[in-house]
Amino acid sequence: MASQQDVAKRARVSFMTVSRVVNNHPGVKSETRERVLSAIRELAYYPNAAARTLNGRGTRNIGMIFPHKEFVLSRPFFIELCVELESHLSDTGYHLFLGSVRKETGSLDLTVLFKERKVDGLVIFAPERDDESVKRLAAEGLPFIVVHGRSDAVEYSYVDIDNERGVSRIMRYLFDLGHRRIGFVSGNMEEVNAQDRSACYRRELEAVGVGFDERIVHTGDWSLESGYEGFRALVGRAPAPSAIVFSNDQMALGAIKAAHDLGVSIPGDVSITGYDDIKYASFVVPALTTMRQPLDRVGEAVATLILERLDGRSECRRVILEPEFKIRDSCGPARAGGSPP
Amino acid sequence: MASQQDVAKRARVSFMTVSRVVNNHPGVKSETRERVLSAIRELAYYPNAAARTLNGRGTRNIGMIFPHKEFVLSRPFFIELCVELESHLSDTGYHLFLGSVRKETGSLDLTVLFKERKVDGLVIFAPERDDESVKRLAAEGLPFIVVHGRSDAVEYSYVDIDNERGVSRIMRYLFDLGHRRIGFVSGNMEEVNAQDRSACYRRELEAVGVGFDERIVHTGDWSLESGYEGFRALVGRAPAPSAIVFSNDQMALGAIKAAHDLGVSIPGDVSITGYDDIKYASFVVPALTTMRQPLDRVGEAVATLILERLDGRSECRRVILEPEFKIRDSCGPARAGGSPP
DNA sequence: TACGTTGATGTTTGCGCAAACATTCAACGT
DNA sequence: ACGTTGAATGTTTGCGCAAACATCAACGTA
């Protein structure tokens, strides 16, 4: 592969002049610049990223971290974010690095990726509350940001969607339809996001004077299967809920399957809501009433924040985006004479 | 960050001894080795990947390339493959690099990633037939492999699923159920995979003496929307097909929605089949009869093949995996007195 | 005793790039 | 005519690592 030296020779200049041209430094006569540029073209020269990195210029790689395969497969949102992020990053010459950090190894040491000079920055998706590796990153002052997370113990930049607003909007909608006995299926309760949505569900319930009843709350893990199970479990309770709030679409999709298997009608017998507005949400029957997470804006915000962290000039920031309520066909009015408070 | 030098100083040896320990070279007294190892631990030393790369040792990065955002979002299979691949690669110390190459830029020059020393090898997913960038990679002798692709013009290693077997199995199943008028909705016909499935559909039809009728063939693009449209279009034809073969699950899912909107029963009025067996296939109602692509084995094969290409010791290979037919609820017997041949 | 042999360790060198510093040369003012 | 200035370009150096080569002590053997 051609190096700066080769280009320099061909253009009859020193390689330093080549370097200046490549990096758009001023102080090169335009005639010389032209000569260098044609040499570059003729030799198909591309600067060697490894040498640049070694020279202290960073890797121009941003790592996106996930804990294990299953995590990704059960979170369509994650992938879409990767792609969205990649598209924003590549505009600024960055590349996306995908890395899993397995719990099995025990280490979970994300700082390694920095020390090995594999990435300049990291994006951590939905870490568990008080995650150790996140703490360590913060302690070492490494540039990273968190999506779908939040911490009281550590300071970092993060992007999230307003769960408060999202869940309360859903609850008010169901209240307006006359529902009072409303069940809830949570995501993986190790994650802040799941905790927040769950807490908000409970708060809204109490705000209208309906007591929280743990018999119609099911702890899921975001998966289709857990949605299926959750629906089965809650509908089996007596008195059964007339509506169930699911913490993501995927679980709500599982619920639709369960309803079919059980011969329960949605929304005739039970209303359900999802969260995320994934692609399938509007293609399933009945189309899912759900809370849209503005994925494109999340991707944009993530790119902006991580780039900000990189040049270190700014403080930690948080960006809270607003979800958008999508009313479709999975909710109906509560049956007259619904269950008493 | 600690360098080999720092470790060497602390262990009171030359940095070359450190290098030997780090790379597990023989010829270091075990006593010295121990001393070096503790110094490494104490200083939290990690070898600098950039320096190694500069030194001619490669990047240990494998790039996964996609053309644009929409491509990924409409191919759940792609993502799952990324994750699956990452898990196999990381066992051997490799990392996954995600890169889009946009058509807009016009360049489409994947060799850049090599020249810039960003990756050691590339995985190309479902390129269009005779894709220019693939040709260039091959011409330059760069290590890459293709998934869901195949070329007569260029030689390269690739992994694919036996479309021949898959489609013919589906067709025979439908024939056995008494279907004779069978429609087809293709994927993006620029891709080899879509072409193959389509060709096989036609061949099977003719093999049993049923003529190919282009009025019940719809050209889709793998997306939910195109499946929806395809179903609408085909069911509207007279005489309507009693079964429709979709080239992937996603489009079949779109069809289920369309059937509902049209008041057509699946499988009562029309039988449908998918392809891929994505997660949702078994959770939709009716559960989709489909052809499972053994994703885990694809991931494994991709990892193996690309690693083989890297050390250059082997010839180009191709791995054709067998799909597995999953019979579920989306097909039924053809109505008695079905449409004449 | 002198000398090769072997195992353990150290030194030199260069991978490609760019900051920091050095040099050259033409244009200008006095 | 001559020093001064500044724009344009060149040279040195080091980033961290490891191959290739060099050294050196300890040992066995003739």
Structure report:
Chain A folds into three domains: 4-47, lambda repressor-like DNA-binding domains (434 Repressor (Amino-terminal Domain), Orthogonal Bundle); 58-161 and 295-322, Rossmann fold (3-Layer(aba) Sandwich), CATH 3.40.50; 163-293, 3-Layer(aba) Sandwich (Rossmann fold). In chain A, helix 6 (76-90) packs across helix 13, helix 9 (163-176) packs parallel to helix 10 (192-207) and helix 11 (224-236) crosses helix 12. Chain A has a six-stranded parallel beta sheet, with helices on both faces. A four-stranded parallel beta sheet of chain A has the order 7-6-8-9, with helices on both faces. Chain A is 43% helix and 15% strand. Chain A has helices at 4-11, 15-22, 30-43, 49-57, 69-73, 76-90, 111-115, 132-139, 163-176, 192-207, 224-236, 249-262, 295-310; strands spanning 61-66, 95-100, 121-125, 144-147, 157-161, 182-186, 217-219, 243-246, 271-273, 290-292, 318-321, 324-326. Chains A and B meet through helix 4, strand 1, helix 5, helix 6 and strand 2 of A and helix 4, strand 1, helix 5, helix 6 and strand 2 of B. The structure holds a DNA duplex (30 and 30 nucleotides).
